[in-house]
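Students often ask what a holo structure prediction actually looks like on paper. The answer is less mysterious than it sounds. You provide the chain, you provide the ligand, and the output is a string of discrete structure tokens encoding the 3D arrangement of the protein together with magnesium ion.
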Amino acid sequence: MTLEQLTKDVQTIAIICNQWGDSGKGKFVDYFAEWADVIVRGTGGNNAGHTIVTNCKKRIFHLVPSGILHKDKINILGNGTVIDLEVLVGELDELTRGGITYNNLMISEDAHVILPYHVKRDIKRNASQKKGAIGSTGRGIGPCYADKIARRGIMIRDLFNKDILAKKIGKAKEYYQEQDIDIEYIVEELGLYAERIKPFVRDTISEMHEFIRHGKKILLEGAQGLLLSIEFGTYPYVTSSDSSVNGVAAGVGLSAKVVDLPLGIVKFPYMTRVGAGPFPTEFGGAKSEGYCASGLEHDIKYELKNYRISFEEKNGSIEYNYHDPKIIELMNSNKPFLQGIGIRLAGEEYGATTGRPRRTGWTDLAALKYAIGINGPNIILTKADVVQGANEIKLGTGYNNSENFTRDSERLRSYKPEYQQFPGFKEDISQIKDYKDLPDNLRGSINFLERYTGAGVRIISTGPDRNQTIIKDL
Ligand code: GDP
Ligand code: IMO
Ligand code: MG
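The corresponding structure tokens follow.
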């Protein structure tokens, strides 16, 4: 099938994740941006890290929509997002340095603003997994959304009225008594940022309604993943917004009903999680969770050195051979903890926002079956190229005591996964363009996923680059 056939009669597409995030949303927003007229983020803030690779150049966006490189397309930060102005302005400056213009940007006047006191509280209370917290990204997301829900949040539109701003920050002060908040200083500083973003601020909800009426093609960019959703995820080990298709639609001023094609991304045949929380299929279970909780102590450099894998540092980035024989050996270890490290190295699974090692495990089909109940049956598979050389592939098919996934984190922690096993493949799939040319073993496991979950695989991604994308025949 071609991209034209997949998008025939489609006005609105959503790119969302059916797992715990980091599945390739950035790649696919960039991919579908060519098709779209308007690209909109609806949830989250700079807790997200969305990677785009074009012509071997890697860019990571935290806040700005991943369609921004397409300068003839409108890119919007929607009403449901939370915006740290310093980070936003930093990203805009970075674009300028890269020679990219952004006159195509709109920022919702209804979005909420992350303030320094949100960040401080988040770091103190939520970020340290070692101290028993959930391991948030420490970007102030939870406290900012908490203020929004408690009706004391500061919105983008407030930035343009100093009196309202001072009054609101004064009120917020009561809730952040552990901090020494200097209202005047914050108002002054916000004023500078406000001037900078003023040309882009709009009533984006009304703009979206106009775009829909005029038949513009809309691409919604999800953040995080269904299992991290405040509504549908493994609460309390979740983020503070609804990362499902419902949340992203609401977060841009639309109903999920208008999304003609929600595409839920699934890492396959392994998946990842960053931060604390249950993960039944995790390689090495609690040992891996504890090891990854140390965050940057066990970052990419530590693991490469520890397992004696040669690497080079070039302009601040680390380069190594993902298929290094030592990595393949780890991936095929009979010790699951080491197997998890092998997959992490082969997939370069280190947080795009925090650099923390991502926990790894086989893809849990019971969790996926649950996720598609909300996000719909159309899915994209990413990262299968990573397991090239693995002797076997396993897929989670439920648990010893239940066939179904549960959002109840404590119960889920006690679940022991059951697996269906498949032989691995040795072929390099990164340049394959046709579904039928993928190794039989891989296609066998994909057929199994479709039968087990009832989902339909629409696209298979075989590498980080835009053109490493196979559209599957229906
Ligand atoms: P996002 O948060 O969902 O946008 O995902 P991240 O950018 O945090 O993490 C996904 C990583 O996988 C990025 O480094 C991408 O460049 C990379 N990636 C995306 N699709 C593929 C794929 O099919 N294969 C490989 N090897 N890497 C991929
Ligand atoms: P993208 O969009 C993976 C996780 C954090 C933590 C929990 C709460 O790149 O897929 P928060 O800072 O949101 O309060 O942290 O959610 N988390 C993510 N994990 N990908 C993300 O975004 C994430 N955003 C938040 O690690 O466990
Ligand atoms: Mg990410």
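The chain has a mean pLDDT of 96.
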